[in-house]
Amino acid sequence: MKVIVGLGNPGPKYAGTRHNVGFDVIDYLAAGPGCTPFREKFEAFVSEMKDGAEQVLLVKPLTFMNLSGRAVRAIGDFYKVPVADVLVICDDFNLPLGKLRVRTKGSHGGQNGLRNIQEQLGTDAYARLRIGVGEPTFDAVDHVLTKFKPGERAAVEDAIATAAQAALLWVRQGAEAAMNRFNGGDEKPKKEKKPKPDEKTEQKKADEKKSDTTDKPTA
Fold first, then answer.
1. Is 19 marked active-site?
2. pTM for the structure as a whole
3. Sign of CA dihedral 175, 48, 82, 91
């Protein structure tokens, strides 16, 4: 069994906000064929889907963002799901709008949902898929609770669809495959190393320079 958790805040007040893109990806997946309607359990809305022979739980915690870990831990304990079989999808204002980044572990980076999940599970060794929601131009907390501007919607909708593809690839082939395919351009280009100068050539240049200096007439 695999578990895909989308993070967000419950209620219509927060629908469509930057902080809720994790919910949006889960809704996108749950709208596909073979998914059951959402049921309320484990302090979350849970839908079940089959992907080949793999059973997948799609989860939207009903606690607020900073308590998301309670649902994740409850589901993991009940179904005996290893942490490595959990993928968490969330927003990230440190990434450009629509940019995706898949990781197998790491810091919560100040994201309160990830922070609580890490506290509840006692480890950071779960996969996470971050979706860029744009850099804040004012208070970060207020920024993530705002809705996307009309000019941003197309990029966000593309990112949600692509994130759903990344999540399915994670289910089928694992985190490394998802990282290789969807983290394109993530690394800074490496600087080309300058070839080391040939020692004989350098010595010849030094000798010529010395000769030029000693051959000059003095005043």
1. yes
2. 0.81
3. positive
